[in-house]
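User: For my dataset I need records formatted as: sequence, then structure tokens, nothing else. Please produce one.
Assistant:
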Amino acid sequence: MMGDRQSQKSGDSSTNYQAQRDIVVYGPSVTEVREIAMDVFKANFYELSEKAYKDVFVRAGAFADAFLTKAMEDGQEKIPEAENPDFQYALFSAQREYARVGDEDLGELLVQLLVDRSKIEDRTLIQIVLNQSLAVAPMLTPEQLDALTLIFLINHTINNSLSTLARFHWYLDNYILPFVPGVSAKYSAYQHLEFARCGAITIGETQIEEAFRMRYMGLLCKGFTEEEAQTVDLTPEARSQLIVPCLHNNALYQVNALNDGVIDSKCAELGVEPEKVERLKSLQIHKVLPLHEIKEYVISTRPQTARLFEVWDSTLMNSMTLTSVGIAIADANLKRRTGISFDLSTWI
């Protein structure tokens, strides 16, 4: 079940844990968890014809195996939550939905959400959101899942590791482009996302090029002259770290920072006076490429993004803000498709 599309990547902000002594984890073993899962499933699934019941029972077992395999890959040798009635209900609900339809993509998404849920033992907002996500995910099509993921990445995240144009192209290749071919261009797809409480359609609109401009202006600067650079009056040390050749024109210069937040942090480290910090920000914002040139640049370097801009501008994607449930589902879809993961506590 669910193929061999499993992968794992560790991002720049990942944390690894070590211990000099054994770490003791209490809870049911993997074998015991499978028995619990199948017992709960058999006790609660409604009666069907003999053939239909055989099919759903096989699917339920395959789902339990896929969940336990994924949990072990994530380092969970025991799953204490398996004895929790709330988690058992979540597990049964996920099994039931996969067993009912047998869709492989849905199965993989539910497994990822369930693994995330199994790690949270306290009744927190994240636990509640993941429980709700397991109930909502079966209501969505693969096209809607891809749309959710793109809205999440473009409107709700910033990748602070993008220090060069090559890294920006890598970001487009690995984060954005995998979800572009399947994204829905139907108006009703986004109405349904709102119905499913994955997002809210707002009055305002946000363009992709506008989102990129705000988050990644350091990669989209047309450059300024030496005379303009000197107006900030930085010390030689600060100048060497804050002013660099322009990425788009080596004859000019730009601020060596991805966005305003990075300018603030770098200037704080270097002890740059507040008025000079504001001058740097002003210099950067006034030298960012116009919105239409940002769009042209992105499409010229990655032509596949042309469809994304077209769908975004012609549907409710441009006016949708995700709810906590929408973010959790988008994150799980990103993780299962690319291996890239975020810490949900950033948003929830």
